[in-house]
Amino acid sequence: MAMTPEAGTAVNETAEDVTNSVPVASQDRMEPPRFLPSPGFAAWLAETGGSLLMSTYQSARLIFLYETDGGLHVLDRVVGTAMGLAVDTDKIWLGNKEQIWKFANTGPATLDSLPVDALYMPRKGYFIGPCDTHDMIADVDFKGERHELVFANTNFSCIAALDDQFNFRPLWKPDFISSLMAEDRCHLNGIGARDGRVVYATLCGRSDTTFGWRGTKNGGGFAVDVETGEILAQGLSMPHSPRWYRDRLWLLNSGDGQFGYVDGERGGFVAVAECPGFARGLSFVGDYAIVGLSQLRTNSFASGIALNAKLQAGNIQQRCGLQIVDLRTGHNAHWLTISGPVTELYDVVFNAGVRRPYCPGFRDPELHRQRVQLPDNSFPHPYRGVQRLFTKPPAGPEKSQG
After folding, report:
1. CATH classification of 9-363, choosing from 1.10.3110.10, 2.40.50.180, 3.40.50.150, 2.120.10.30?
2. What are the distances in angstroms from CA 329 to CA 167, 236, 288, 324, 332?
3. S-S: 95 plus which of 84, 230, 328, 397, CB 3.0-4.6 Å?
4. The predicted structure's pLDDT at residue 89
5. CA-to-CA distance for 348 and 55, rounded, in angstroms?
6. Whether the predicted pLDDT of 305 surpasses 70
7. Which residue from 239, 186, 234, 233 is spatially nearest to 213, judged by alpha carbons?
């Protein structure tokens, strides 16, 4: 049985032409999505010692998944066209088509009588213009310079960093891109780090014309080392999510519905698992890969993609959700199916050590008024320790206190 998610709702375990996004106001009027985990999914997530975050720009949501009381809980926030995610112990970065937001981990709290070990509050936003941000990496070096955040600037065909004055600061572009223009010439969507440096990128085509990559969706993609310019794997179909893990570069060959790695000695892509959907978003924990799945759009986006024909030939139903792959066997260990208004995911990240997160997004005005976090210095204040907070004003005289 599954339940639709409100703030902290438990989910009991059981086995046409879509534009890039749906307006936030429309999302608020839609039925909430439904989450159907495989048996053992919640127990597996509990064993990891952390929680999961997912983004979906198609339905404008940031979704938190965590285990509590033996079941899977879902926290669903409508935040705009959510795309790339970058997470560490003290913050979440969330990108969308024209903005990037920073949510600070303000620490543990008691929220409506329930404990949370990380309360993420919005702290800073950047209005970056028509960048169509995709992957993001926080606190990373590029060519010896440290950056607070680096992102795939897909519309301008480059890798960029945040800037307080300009829309963005370009860091790298493919050698075949003649000019930075908002034309999505090669669909540079994925970036990956290694040893604290931005090293990898995935592109969907080698084009220097507006949307030129669309003509080579099936087989025109490649992965590149941005430090050396070396092509690491080519002949890919709309590759996404390059990630360095356990001495290998892993990625999603999305247009062919495959998860795998780049063979460092012979070159080329080695498929490890087949995906029952358009794979996009990749994270790792222990011996497992967490793969995000999306349904193909029923417009021209799906035309010319081998995955579409492969699923039809195998009579395989497309799935939106998560696929948990055991790296030791290549087999599916667990899965999560999402139905309702959410049909596409963009990113998925594992938040290590945070078992029970909470985030109001841009709602819960009462919580925004109550939550105060100040630096630990000599100034006296009552906000130290675990605060008692409420998402709605308490009925009696009791109020938030330190």
Report:
1. 2.120.10.30
2. 45, 23, 10, 12, 9
3. 84
4. 79
5. 7
6. yes
7. 186
Handedness of CA 135, 206, 273, 59 (dihedral sign): positive
**Could you tell me the pTM of the whole model?**
0.89
Number of neighbouring beta carbons within 10 Å of residue 75: 23
Name residues whose C-beta falls within 8 Å of residue 72's C-beta, 6 or more positions apart in sequence.
Answer: 10, 11, 13, 35, 37, 41, 42, 45, 65, 66, 336
Share of the chain above pLDDT 90, in %: 72
**Alpha helices, H only, 254-384:** 306-313, 365-370
Start-to-end CA distance of the chain, whole Å, equals 39
| Lowest mean per-residue pLDDT among 181-195, 296-310, 365-379 | 296-310
Model confidence at 9: pLDDT above 70: no
Q: Is the pLDDT of residue 308 over 70?
A: yes
Q: How far apart are CA 384 and CA 237, in angstroms?
A: 52
Which residue ranges make up each domain of the chain?
9-363
